[in-house]
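G., the chain you wanted modeled:
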Amino acid sequence: MHSLLKERSMDIQEINELVKGKSAFISALRTEMQKKIVGQKHMVDSLLIGLLGKGHILLEGVPGLAKTLAINTLSKAVQGSFSRIQFTPDLLPADVVGTVIYNMSKQEFSTKKGPVFANFVLADEINRAPAKVQSALLEAMQEKQVTIGEQTFLLEQPFLVMATQNPVEQEGTYPLPEAQSDRFMLKVVIDYPNQDDELRIMRQNMAKTTEEISSIIDLKQIKEAQDIIDQVYIDEKIENYILDLIFATRYPAKYKLTKKVYRKFINNKGEEDEKEEEVPLEEFIQYGASPRGSINLAKASKCYAFINGRGFVVPEDVRAVIYDVLRHRIGLSYLAEADEISSEQIIEQIVNTIEVP
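Predicted structure as tokens:
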């Protein structure tokens, strides 16, 4: 038993040294992206997690927060191809994946590939397109291949989709169904920059000279890093911790989870008053995270450890990524909406209650 533990610790040490060496490019990549992206560290790290974890990102934020610029900058720094699809109500599936066209001069059919054939794809305002178009993109994301006519084409790896949606404007939109949003590894909510960062953004955009983005790594190195992430060590205790967090979203009563809420009532004097109540968390949850939740939480935790130069996962890694992994995987009940309880508040309650190994 002692020799087995010693052998395992040696393996962890070797993996840790390997990760330290192979993750050195992350610092250079962040520095390169900072030439164009001011602040928004969380968004940049999320892009790296999605890229290294072979996942996709759903980004929610008001217009003008550098979402397009971020993925375009990343594609230049990684020597990858970039395409942008502006989703509109009149968009067709063929506009995304491509179509078969007839060549009159050659009298034959040829395949015209769509913008989905790129390493980095920005699906701008994905909730503006009808369900058919959304499903065409999501199929390509899931299967990593596209069928046009009778031909099936494998998408070049790495393949990262960053879809954006505007939380403010809801007119003429088609919200992503739960089964489709579950395909995204992360849902990242970004906010306005602080005053100092916005001053830098303003000055940067008014300056006559802009810094060019240099290619830091190539696609081969990214694939190599993706393979190394599979080897990042995750202890059985951490695995059970992840499962406890996921199962707490499904069966909160089993974990005796409750949430304090303030509810209004009319008192004896006929006046409106407020009192604090301890409500079982299950009343706020319509459905919990699917098995994709546990898979992606483990993957994202490994990626977070990697980008921080570690070859093993610690509980802090899980806690750092859990909000982005689970916020779109928890269905809220009508009671949650009435009490203004968000999925973030539910996750926070779970994280603060479940025992850390």
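The domain at 236-353 is CATH 1.10.8.80 (Helicase, Ruva Protein; domain 3).

Shout if anything looks off.
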